[in-house]
Each structure stands twice: as C-alpha cells, then as structure tokens.
Amino acid sequence: MAEKSTDATPGLLIANAVTLVLALALHWSVASLLWPFWLQSVIIGWYARQRMLALTSFSTEGFTSGDQPVPENEEGKRSTANFFVLHYGIFHLAYLVFLFDQAPPARLLDLVLLAACGYSFVYAQRKTFAEQVAADAQGRPNLGKLMFLPYLRVLPIHLSIVFGAASTGAWGLFVFVPLKTIADLLLDRVDRNMADRGAESV
C-alpha cells in the first residue's frame, strides 16, 4: 500500500503563529508583514514551475489555452510553465512596487530578517518540492490544476492591499495572518489530496 503524504498542518500553524508574534513585537504594519510572505510566494512560484517541468506523465483534461485543449506533450507542458511564470510574475511585480512604496525595508534588522526568511523558505520548499515530484511520478496529475495551485497564495496578499495593508494597527495583522494561514492550509490540503490519489492509483 502506498504511503500517505505528510500532513503539514501543525508546522503551518506554528510558522504563521510565530510570524504573527514577531510582527506584533516589532510593530510591523501589514505591508511590512507582506514582505516575507511575498518572498515566500515568489519561491513557491519558482518551484511550481520546476514541478510542472519535472512531470513525465500528466493529464490536461478540462484545461484549455486559447479555446484549444492543451496537448499532453513536452510542448504543452513548457508553454503552460512559461505562461504561468509570465502571469504569476506580473502579479508579484505589481505587489513588489506596492511594497517598496508602502513599506520599504529601511532598517538593517528588516533586511536580515527578510534574508533569513528567504533562506528558510527555500530550505523548506526544496523538501516539499522533492516530495511533490515523487508523488507526481506515482500518478498522472492534471497540469492545469498544478498551474493554478500557487494562486491560492496570492489571494491574501491581494485582499490585504485592497483592504488596507498600510495599517499599523494590530487588527490588520489579526486579519491578514489568518487569511494567509487559511490559504496555506488549503494549498497543503489540495496538494496532499492530489498526491494521495496519485499514490492510490499505483
């Protein structure tokens, strides 16, 4: 019997709780808190593209581009990955401009913490990526679903910008961090369900 994927819920809850405590202790605005989460989202996007390119067997059922079915071949895989980078990248470039305008990292401590976050995100995502690729190899994941998964990370960032990311009040942090945590949990749940279905099909 294939091994079930690991539940990352406890780790996600702890990581987001620690982030909230740090933000409150350092008196960050929501915009300041968006910096590490923006960086995390970029890293996830990078590995999402690598994951798509690593597929050897995949489905494109229900997935179209320009009203045409995406072919289940190398060309379809690469064109999808490249489109994802362009579209996902435009979102994050716009958010980057917003962050530099609203909360430029002026203090050395901010830069050090951001660099530390980036390192930890890459370290964690590399492990997740390896598990995802191994799970994908056991089944036949849908390319379209893999492409759209990372956008769950974009929603909390977008909502925070729309509803007042420049706020310095604690209320903003208590709104944004739960939204981001929910997005993390949803993404993890969908990922695990896809991996488990693939494992069961072996």
TrEMBL record:
Ranges that cross the membrane: 12-38, 81-100, 157-179
Keywords, comma-separated and alphabetical: Membrane, Transmembrane, Transmembrane helix
Pfam families: DUF6498
Domain of life, source organism: Bacteria
Keyword Membrane: yes
Protein name: Uncharacterized protein
Species: Arenimonas oryziterrae DSM 21050 = YC6267
